[in-house]
Amino acid sequence: MADAGLISAFVERWHRETNSFHLPFGEMTITLDDVVTLLHISPHGKFFDAPLNMNTNNAARAAHEYLGATWEEACAEISYNKCAQYRLQWLRDLYSRLIQTNQFECAARTYLLHLVGCTIFADKTHTHVEAKYITLFIDLHRCRDYSWASVALVFLYDNLGDGAVHDTRQCWIYEHFPRTCKQGDRGAVPAHLPRACRWNAKHVEGGLMTYRRRLDALLLKDVVFTPYDDDRANPPFVSISMFSGYLRCGGVSVPYLPERCLRQFGRIQCIPRDVPPMQDNIDLVVFSVFRVTFLRRRFSDAVEQLSLHIWP
C-alpha cells in the first residue's frame, strides 16, 4: 500500500540539483548502498545504452523479434497504447502462451521485461513498461553485465518527482525514519530475499499535512543513518557506493553526490563541494562506453578526501 501523504512530504523536500532531500538537520539521499541492500542488485557492470530511435515501429518490431509476438499482435499492442510501450497485462498473457508453445527464450525475455516494469522501471501508471528496455535482454547471457543498481538509481532520481517507483522510496523511508510513520515490520527476512521484503505498509495513518509537520520537527535522534549495520553480511557494503560524480542510464545522466550525506556512511558530515557540472568536452556517445568499474579509479581519490571525516 502506497502512503501518498508520506511520499509527497518527502518529494517536496527533494532537490534535483543535488538529488537529495533537504531536511532540518541537513541532507539525505537514496544511495547506491540503499539500492543494493534493499533490492539485492549489483552496482558493478556497464551502463545501459538505451536506443535513441525506439519509436512505435521499432517497438512493434522488437516485440515481434525478441518477445515472440506475431507481427499483427505487436502492431495491435503498439496501436492500442499509441506509444512505444507494452502493457504489463499484455506481457503476462504473452508469457503464458510462449510457455505453452515451448518458446522459452522469448518467454524469458518477456518475463524479465515484465519484472523490471513492475519494479525498478515502474512508472506512475503501474500498468506499462517502455519498449526500449527490451534491449537489456536481447542477449540473455549478458544480462548480468549491467550495473543494475546504477540503472535503478538513475531511473529513481529521474522520476522521483512523480508517482513512479514509490515502493523503493517508501522502504527507504521506513529504514531511515522509523519514528516518522507507521509500518509493518515482518522482521528478519531470509538471506536470499531483498531487505525490502521486510516491510509491509498495512496502515496509512496520516495525510500530507501530518507528515509535513513531522518532517519540520525532525531531530537527529529520530533518524537512523546506518540502518543496515545489523546485517552487513547480506549483502556486504561495496566501496563503489561512495563514488561521487554522474551516473547514466540511456540518455539520462544524474549527479550522484554521497559526500553531501556522509552520515549515511557512518562518517562525520563536512561542508560538501559544489555540484560538479557535466564537462562540456565529454561526448555522451563516448561516455556511454564507460563502466562503473572504471569509476573505481575515482573512488581512491574520494577516500583520501574523506579520510579525515571517518568516525574514530
From TrEMBL:
GO biological process, one term: meristem maintenance
One Pfam family, short name: PMD
InterPro entries: AminoTfrase-like_pln_mobile, MAIN-like
Aminotransferase-like plant mobile domain residues: 3-275
PANTHER family listed in its UniProt record: PROTEIN MAIN-LIKE 2
Stated name of the protein: Protein MAIN-LIKE 1-like
Native species: Cicer arietinum (Chickpea)
